[in-house]
Design goal:
With 431 residues, the chain is an alpha+beta fold. The protein has 7 helices and 27 strands. The N terminus and C terminus are likely disordered.
Length: 431
């Protein structure tokens, strides 16, 4: 859960435990990714400082895409080491530990029920962590409040997993949490909500009781009649057949995918919405975009992106990509509304941008004024900042160009080009 200075270390198949890098001005102070597209290590900033970072490694201008110590450079001779426990440790030239990167942790108890939030407040307590903060993900913010008020507000809110209190300010956050930092300069405290009696101790006869139960159940099953076995086999066959037919393309009403605010459409619904994919909006290397109208959504206009046939290992890639994009939520990103994963069809449904692409706006007959240019530039920067540092699963777009920026009715810039996005799994390229 704690990710100091915005990263997670992962052991690479090409880097052995105990390996280290030393900050110096030569080519031996970085590790390239398996593809060579990225590199991780030290980059010299100015005359004496070094930045621990990840950058594009195949272009002359080595553009940094992530850094750990942008506000606190280390000196020459500092060292980062992949420790035996799989964590990265950064020490300055004097050997003092500057930072440690963890793989994180996950919740091991049942979350607070939203149906019975008021009656469950006494089942939770707060674990305090001083000088700790997670960046991004605030869904409520209060000022000029007391700490006790902040605690009670979080206890009574089933969505609140952590409350950050600092000088009268109360920030409520929900899981998942990432990009956490611990530093004396932060101040305040993090209040982590934990269920009481998370682990229920087992009695001395618990294991013996479990074994007796298993023996009893096994005896009953083995002594069942042939008729009961036949019923069980028939039930299993019907369940498997139903699952198979559903995956093979049986039309089901669309539903919301768990953990994501996107809908699952059938191919028939999208075929009808696009009038058999008639009106083409654009075409890319791996997909074609069509205009559609959702009759069951008050005739809402959408952009339907039909991907090329995906087979083999790319099936997992599609699901992972959709999961990453589906969890993003920012006013400068084109929102993913839904998807279709039926048979050979892989389709993504996005909100429709009426003003088209930034490229057509910049290079068209009607040129944007300087105010519009400034607003578009700021929107672009905010969207990229969210993707790189603020969303729960950090993403590198890798195809930034005017054609991949769309404009809504108010000419707000929205980043698109989802299928070419890549998750930065802190760091993804070393996994």
């Amino acid at each position: 859960m704690i990710l100091p200075y915005s990263t997670i270390a992962q052991t690479s198949r090409n880097i052995s435990l105990g390996s280290s890098l030393t900050a110096r001005n030569d080519d031996n102070s970085s590790w390239p990714s398996p593809s060579g597209e990225f590199a991780f290590g030290f980059q010299q900033i100015g005359k004496y400082g070094f930045l621990l970072a990840i950058w594009f490694n195949k272009i002359p201008d080595r553009t940094i895409v992530w850094s750990a110590n942008r506000n606190d450079l280390v000196q020459e001779g500092s060292k980062v080491e992949l420790a035996s426990d799989g964590m990265l440790e950064l020490r300055n030239s004097e050997g003092r530990q500057w930072g440690m990167w963890l793989k994180g942790c996950k919740q091991n108890f049942v979350s607070q029920s939203c149906d019975e939030a008021s009656s469950e407040t006494n089942l939770f307590y707060f674990q305090e962590m001083q000088n700790t903060k997670w960046y991004g993900g605030d869904y409520e913010q209060f000022t000029s409040v007391q700490e006790d008020w902040c605690r009670q507000s979080c206890l009574g809110d089933c969505f609140c997993a952590v409350a950050i209190f600092n000088n009268g300010e109360c920030l409520k956050k929900r899981i998942p949490l990432s990009n956490g930092r611990m530093s004396p300069s932060i101040g305040g405290k993090a209040l982590i909500k934990i269920r009481k009696d998370t682990l229920i101790p087992e009695g001395p006869n618990a294991k013996e009781k479990d074994n007796s139960t298993m023996i009893l159940v096994g005896s009953v099953l083995l002594s069942c009649s042939g008729f009961l076995n036949l019923v069980l086999l028939l039930t299993t066959y019907l369940i498997v057949s139903r699952i198979y037919n559903k995956n093979a393309g049986v039309n089901q009403p669309y539903s919301v995918m768990p953990g994501m605010n996107v809908k699952c459409f059938t191919y028939e619904e999208l075929n009808e919405a696009t009038n058999a994919f008639k009106e083409e909006l654009g075409r890319g290397a791996f997909s074609t975009v069509f205009k559609g109208v959702l009759a069951f959504e008050n005739r809402k206009c959408v952009a339907v992106k039909r991907l090329d046939t995906i087979v083999g290992e790319n099936e997992f890639e599609f699901k992972a990509e959709m999961s990453a994009i589906g969890r993003t939520n920012h006013r400068n990103l084109v929102q993913l509304l839904g998807f279709c994963n039926e048979g050979q069809h892989r389709i993504l449904v996005y909100e429709f941008m009426s003003k088209g692409s930034l490229a057509s706006f910049l290079f068209g007959e009607s040129k944007p004024n300087w105010y519009q240019r400034r607003q578009i530039a700021l929107g672009t920067a905010r969207g990229l900042l969210y993707l790189h540092e603020e969303c729960s699963m950090q993403i590198i777009h890798c195809d930034i160009k005017p054609q991949n920026f769309l404009l809504d009715d108010s000419f707000t810039a929205r980043i698109s080009g989802g299928p070419v996005q890549r998750k930065l799994m802190r760091p993804y390229m070393y996994k």
